[in-house]
Predict the structure of Phosphatidylethanolamine N-methyltransferase.
Amino acid sequence: QVDVAAMVWLFGYVDVTDTGFIVAVLSIAFNPLFWNVVARWEHKTRALSQIFGSPHAACYCLGVAILVLNCVRSHCFTEAMKSQPKLESWDCLWTYYTGLAISAVGTLFVISSFLALGFTGTFLGDYFGILMEEKVTSFPFSILDNPMYWGSTAIYLGWSLMHASPAGLLLTAVVAISYTIAVLYEG
């Protein structure tokens, strides 16, 4: 038997029909769908490599597109969070610093993943035929599978706590679900 009291409580603070909230959910869901569809299309057709003249140029262009989409997603997330009510009992230094610490750990995972993989390793170079010499097993991959995804999720969780935002917590759950689906699809 599942206790849904926490979800009922959370939904009491979140207007899921708010346009900004809906846009945030759509942008969160769109990003991994976009990069997985485009990467698989490239792997199958090599169309982007032909258009851009090389696999490296195509991978870099896709990487820039993903970065721009992530900026849009983060903006939509923040705007949706700001348009919804705060949880006053969480609007305190303890919650703020907890969120800051969680965001810092998430940032560590994201940056260290990028440094370990490089640009083409991070942005789906394998789908472009740009393969690494061996599987990366150093930190953070030595302690966590998909550290970039879970680091990004931690950043959003921390951001939500820093803003005492129930809407942010719900959007963070959407991020986690989207990445879970992406991991299943990519695997």
Summary: The CA atoms of residues 121 and 132 lie 7 Å apart. The two ends are 31 Å apart (CA to CA). DSSP finds seven helices and no strands in the chain. The helical segments are 5-11, 19-45, 47-52, 55-82, 93-122, 147-162, 166-186.
